[in-house]
Amino acid sequence: GASDMPAEIWEKVKNHPCYSEEAHHYFARMHVAVAPACNIQCNYCNRKYDCSNESRPGVVSEKLTPEQALHKVMAVAAKVPQLSVLGIAGPGDALANPHKTFRTFDLVAKALPHLKLCLSTNGLALAEHVETIKDYNVDHVTITISAVDPEIGQHIYPWIFHDHRRWTGLDAARILHERQMEGLERLVAAGILVKINSVLIPGVNDAHMAEINRVVKAKGAFLHNIMPLISDPAHGTHFGLSGQRGPTPIELAAVQDSVEGGAKLMRHCRQCRADAVGLLGEDLGAEFALDKIEDEP
Ligand code: CLF
Ligand code: SF4
Question: Tens digits of per-residue pLDDT, 114-136?
Fold first, then answer.
């Protein structure tokens, strides 16, 4: 709360529902799904669905152009007074679609300058965009980091697309790790609040989570969100060919408890869809689908 952090940080988090546990009772976020492409492959991702960075799989997001996104944000802002944050979190990677992402931020900042801007990325293309992120007044960036050791990362990321070519195996995991660390360091140096999301995959990175927490804290991350792999095959997520399961709530809590003492943990994440609208845990997205809002006077 206000008493345990510097005033300029409190100004940034006090009405952000993900960065402040208190704020999530009173302030709403919305995502616009303007970023369809991705530059890496996570084993748990099924591209038919939203980005498993930050999403509950099941239904495909409504893909929007930046202009359609602005239209939707204005419709939501007019009806949801608690709206304080616009986030771009997929359904692919926000920074694998930089023109769409930054054009959306630009349009929204001009029309609704009171909204905070937030983005979520796998971090591969982050370092080269930090200046732009700063120029567009994006105060909040989430990097999904599920390993800080390429030996572990290679079991999570089968390939990345970087520097005009595809990389696989240990090379892919090493490059992704290096790019994530450089992006994190540059964001922190630029004064941007960074949250780390880690997808907890039992048997793959559960014993590694405390190390991730230590490393990201040392590099200046503000918050660490350990989120469970969602592995319902009916909803299309999968893990390689092995049918990797997600953690039980008890296993998740045990891992979260085991890392206490490093970077501060977020424990109120609701694993939003890439087109979520409303308070965390609430999804008004269907009410604001484009065909609904376009009919209105
Ligand atoms: Fe969206 Fe993410 Fe910004 Fe929040 S979600 S881009 S930081 S505005 Fe929040 Fe949703 Fe959890 Fe993400 S509850 S999945 S942490
Ligand atoms: Fe899927 Fe997101 Fe991973 Fe890209 S970063 S492969 S969209 S989970």
Answer: 999 999 999 999 999 999 999 99
How would residue 235 be classed by pLDDT, with cut points 50, 70 and 90?
Answer: very low
Q: Mind listing the pLDDT tens digit for each residue in 142-169? A: 999 999 999 999 999 999 999 999 999 9
pTM to 2 decimal places: 0.92
Q: Domain count of the chain?
A: 1
d(CA 179, CA 218): 16
> Nearest to residue 52, comparing CAs of 282, 272, 288?
272
Question: Based on the number of CB atoms within 10 Å of its own CB, is 267 exposed (0-12), middle (13-18) or buried (19 or more)?
Answer: exposed
Q: Which of 20, 85, 142 to mutate to test the pocket of ligand 1 (most atoms within 8 A of CB)?
A: 142
Range of the domain at 140: 2-294
Q: Which atom of ligand 2 is nearest to the CA of 121?
A: 5
Task: Give, for ligand 1, the residue of 13, 16, 27, 29 to mutate: max count of ligand atoms closer than 8 Å to Cβ.
Answer: 29
Which ligand is the nearest neighbour of the Cα of 276?
1
Say if residue 158 is preceded by a cis peptide, omega within 30 of 0.
no
- Ligand 2 centroid distance, CA of 33 (Å): 13
Find the CATH number of the domain harbouring 165. 3.20.20.70
